[in-house]
């Protein structure tokens, strides 16, 4: 009864305003979108803006349904699910994607990008387009926008990290990436790959001492509850591409494909700005939560991981690695 009263009141209001009742209609298609984090995270802000623009540009025909905190599965399962057509869309880190496409391991290599402007310029260039084409060809996934997680930093529950020597003996969780394992072993840690959904519990129980993530992620999942030290190592820039299963994308009309891409393009700068703003805000808040924050000299870290870049360069593509490092920005 309440619903019928609400609808009739709304309908009268719309008619009184002389506007279309089409706005009240349910969308023709709701796209499920997987996110590893919550709605207030840098990922959530970008995906929700994408949804707003999608509804606006399609006059309400297209909408999204966000699924937060890995509700549809861990990142690797989500990437695979999009390729198989089981999951509509998602935003994930690039960590698991290197297991499908060697070139995506570029984003696992340490100290490739100097700052945000460097990373954005590279991703928004023909190199970002080439990587997106590889995702289509080898993963059956359409990259809609190169959103970001941000620069990653190390946290642990053992001690302050000022030099690579301080990582000796620390049990460190990496993403499921061979490059990341090699990186942290080069820095002196005992590196173990582990699915994201298991990390908090492993840190809480002392199975793992250490992890690394962007500041907004560290705050969003309450790592300050189980980690005492935040060390601003900035060792990796981590994109968070917003993606859709290629088969699903191609099932839309050309008009709707253009709307989907435009919505993603409009959401992209909003998401990137939010990511940087959250990064600064959460640095302060993590200190207030009791974490000890250090700003180590990065030169010894960069030197220690050079063999990793040399080792993996041929696999990732030496031209691609060199282009990323030296990209004009």
TrEMBL record:
GO terms for biological process: transmembrane transport. GO terms for cellular component: outer membrane-bounded periplasmic space. InterPro entries: DctP_fam, TRAP_DctP, TRAP_DctP_sf. The keyword Signal applies. It is found in: Cell envelope. Residues 1-25 form the signal peptide. Coiled coil: none annotated. It comes from the Bacteria. Keywords: Receptor, Signal, Transport. Belongs to the bacterial solute-binding protein 7 family. PANTHER family: PTHR33376, SIALIC ACID-BINDING PERIPLASMIC PROTEIN SIAP. NCBIfam families: dctP (TIGR00787), TRAP_S1 (NF037995). This is C4-dicarboxylate ABC transporter substrate-binding protein. It comes from Halomonas cupida. The lineage of its organism: Bacteria, Pseudomonadati, Pseudomonadota, Gammaproteobacteria, Oceanospirillales.
């Amino acid at each position: 009864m309440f619903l019928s009263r609400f609808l009739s009141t709304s309908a009268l209001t719309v008619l009184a305003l002389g506007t279309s009742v089409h706005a009240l209609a349910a969308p023709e298609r709701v796209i499920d979108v997987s996110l590893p984090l919550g709605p207030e995270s840098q990922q959530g802000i970008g995906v929700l803006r994408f949804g707003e623009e999608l509804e606006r540009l399609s006059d309400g025909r297209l909408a999204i349904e966000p699924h937060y905190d890995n509700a549809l599965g861990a990142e690797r399962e989500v990437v695979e699910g999009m390729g198989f057509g089981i999951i509509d869309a998602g935003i994930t880190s690039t960590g698991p994607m290197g297991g499908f496409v060697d070139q995506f391991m570029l984003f696992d290599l340490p100290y490739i990008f100097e700052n945000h402007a460097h990373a954005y310029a590279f991703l928004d260039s023909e190199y970002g387009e080439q990587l997106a084409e590889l995702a289509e060809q080898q993963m059956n996934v359409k990259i809609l926008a190169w959103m970001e997680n941000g620069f990653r930093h190390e946290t642990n529950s053992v001690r302050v990290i000022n030099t690579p020597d301080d990582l000796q003996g620390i049990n460190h969780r990496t993403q499921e990436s061979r490059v990341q394992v090699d990186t942290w072993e080069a820095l002196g840690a005992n590196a173990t790959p582990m699915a994201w959904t298991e990390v908090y519990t492993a840190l809480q129980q002392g199975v793992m001492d250490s992890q690394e993530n962007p500041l907004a992620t560290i705050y969003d999942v309450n790592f300050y509850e189980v980690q005492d030290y935040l060390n601003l190592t900035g060792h990796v820039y981590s994109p968070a591409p917003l993606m859709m299963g290629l088969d699903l994308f191609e099932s839309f009309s050309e008009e709707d494909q253009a709307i989907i891409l435009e919505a993603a393009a409009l959401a992209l700068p909003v998401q990137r700005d939010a990511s940087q703003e959250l990064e600064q805000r959460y640095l302060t808040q993590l200190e207030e939560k009791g974490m000890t924050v250090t700003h180590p000299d990065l030169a010894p870290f960069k030197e220690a991981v050079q063999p990793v870049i040399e080792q993996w360069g041929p696999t990732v593509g030496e031209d691609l690695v060199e282009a990323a490092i030296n990209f004009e920005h």
